[in-house]
Amino acid sequence: MGAEFQAVHTALVFLVIIIVIVWAFWPKNKDKFEHDANSIFEEDKKKNVKRSQQESDKDE
Description:
This protein is an all-alpha fold. It has helices at 3-25, 30-59.
């Protein structure tokens, strides 16, 4: 395992990093990423609605 192996390994790792970066910023993926990012807030809103309904049921 000499310098040639290390050079090939470094090049492959660099290539994988570049591919991941390109995939992450590809315009086609933007809508999916935005939906996934906002889904956290949608779940939180649903939990808050359920919690407020439970509290109002307790008050009655």
